[in-house]
Write a structure and sequence with these properties.
This protein is mostly beta strands and 253 residues long. It contains 1 helix and 12 strands. It has one domain: Porin. A hairpin with a 2-residue loop joins strand 3 and strand 4.
Length: 253
């Protein structure tokens, strides 16, 4: 019980410290830490850069990923903050904090509840507060293939910077998440969310992420990821479609 209280205390502090991410929709499924053991798992990162040539620039970022698992329950905390300033102008200013609880009921059914606080100045989101709950189903789980589906109710409070706007919406948040490992050195994973307004399904967001990991050696991996977001009714002057593709190498030792 004391461990749970420590976890809740950390969350309470972080939820009052706005954190960030480059996207307006955060892909939580890709952040779950897959482990067969109970207890704590996670990571933390903090970085700061100061540079002076023609103008002075500085950037700061921090992230936290904490997971606590018991035989029946899963607690997940994500937090991230990004800031980049040059010539006294903010180019990146975004953050989020996300807390999720998962309770197991048998081999197939889980029940989830979550809350999230988010802001993204670039996408004109001054504040977005989310709370939601609903079932999560394990559709398939083998050594090579895993597939999950969730259907959750979500309440959304949103403040748009310009033009000034306040939204109180009730949305459906459905997702399909899966992974395929055809060999020990190759893994393909993907998650897609569909979040329509309950009163008007034409007002919706479709977002997804696809990841590929290829083992070059036992310790070196090639990774590529693709993120996609389509918002049918984004804030003024913000495009309906946003996407990002990233390639890289990962070395484990």
């Amino acid at each position: 019980m004391s461990k749970v209280l420590v976890f809740v205390t950390i969350v309470s502090v972080l939820l009052w410290c706005p954190d960030g991410h480059a996207q307006a929709v955060v892909n939580i499924e890709q952040k779950r830490i897959v482990t067969d053991t109970v207890g704590w798992a996670g990571s933390m990162n903090i970085s700061y850069l100061l540079n002076k040539d023609v103008d002075e620039q500085y950037s700061a970022s921090g992230s936290m990923h904490v997971q606590y698992k018991t035989s029946k329950s899963l607690y997940l905390l994500l937090a991230n903050l990004s800031l980049l300033e040059a010539a006294s102008k903010n180019f990146i200013n975004s953050g989020f904090a996300h807390l999720r609880y998962n309770r197991k009921f048998g081999k197939i059914l889980r029940w989830e509840a979550f809350s999230q606080l988010q802001f993204n100045k670039i996408l004109q989101v001054n504040q977005r507060v989310l709370v939601g709950t609903g079932p999560r189903l394990k559709l398939l789980s083998t050594k090579k293939v895993k597939l999950y589906q969730g259907t959750l109710y979500m309440y959304e409070y949103e403040e748009i910077i310009s033009p000034r706007e306040f939204n109180n919406d009730h949305r459906l948040s459905t997702y399909l998440s899966g992974s395929w490992s055809p060999s020990d050195r190759a893994t393909i994973s993907s998650t897609w969310y569909f979040q329509p307004l309950l009163s008007d399904f034409n007002d919706n967001r479709l977002s997804g992420q696809m990841n590929l990991e290829l083992g070059i050696t036992k310790k070196l991996k090639f990774t590529t990821s693709f993120n996609y977001l389509h918002d049918t009714r984004p804030p003024t002057d913000i495009p309906k479609v946003a996407y990002r593709m990233r390639n890289g190498l990962t070395f484990k030792f």
